[in-house]
Amino acid sequence: MAMFENLSKRLEGIFNNLGGQGTLTEEDVNAALREVRLALIEADVNLKVARQFVDRVKEKAIGANVTGNLSSSQQVLAIVNDELVEVLGGEDGNNKLDLGGTPPQIIMLVGLQGSGKTTSAAKLANYLRKQGQRPLLVAADMYRPAAVNQLKALGRQLTIPVYSEPAGADPVDICANSLAYAREQACSVVILDTAGRLNIDERMMNEVINIRHRLQPREVLLVADAMTGQEAVRVADDFNRAVSLTGMILTKMDGDARGGAALSIRTVTGVPVKFMGIGEKTDALEPFYPDRLASRILG
Ligand code: GDP
Q1: 136, 191 in Cβ contact below 8 A?
Q2: pLDDT band with cut points at 50, 70 and 90 for residue 1
Q3: 282 CA to centre of ligand 1 in angstroms
Q4: Which residues line ligand 1 (CB under 6 A)?
């Protein structure tokens, strides 16, 4: 499929009417950017973020010379694409986990119930093991009754160790105790599955704040459901204010979601997307590639 087929057709329509060749005039650019803004909003990008993005593109597009054999619409598409990739994290994506230093390094996952946090913990452990790490999964979601058993089952399936404590144990202590266990077992990375709620509440936030404070994790990743679109932006903003996120895992990208939430979240919070969940299986996790998401958003 051609890149941005949908937007590309719409822009061609506009430029054919304008008949613009040579230099892009302000009128050409305005007409084209209306289409770009609509495409972004259709992809679930927040209105304000779409407007900001279009303003950035406009500055670059006006007065740009249409050179070589690029048509006006191709020229605008190229500028939009470059800008989108840049906002989403640049060519190399800025999406690597920071796991240097003395092991075990700690990765803390936070997020709302149902976002895919427990599944993502197992996927991440599986992914990191393939990279030569020795992961330990830690069941610190004592709020959702099934979460501990779910994580244990995933661990068994992957033959990756899971640290857990009986019901009633304090999540902060569980995380702290898991570190000693990780050292004993010579694990190189510890993945904490913390409690989620259906909505953000103070108790949950205090719990994740306490874990972050006590454990000083190297990475604090928000697991967010791409299907929740606009809502994900507010959730990301709240978690970021409370625990300073270092990245995000955007789940359920195998569904219909166009992924506009990633652009909104990145613009509003500055937090980079590091992984995408693309299915329910434990290998359905991939590193985040800004250029691929750009194509998907502009479809
Ligand atoms: P938690 O409450 O955040 O721990 O959520 P779970 O890990 O239990 O996931 C909730 C549901 O979403 C489960 O049915 C998962 O199989 C499903 N899920 C998680 N990640 C993905 C994904 O990337 N794609 C799809 N299609 N389903 C996912």
Answers
A1: yes
A2: very low
A3: 10
A4: 111, 113-119, 144, 147, 196, 251-252, 254-255, 277-280, 284
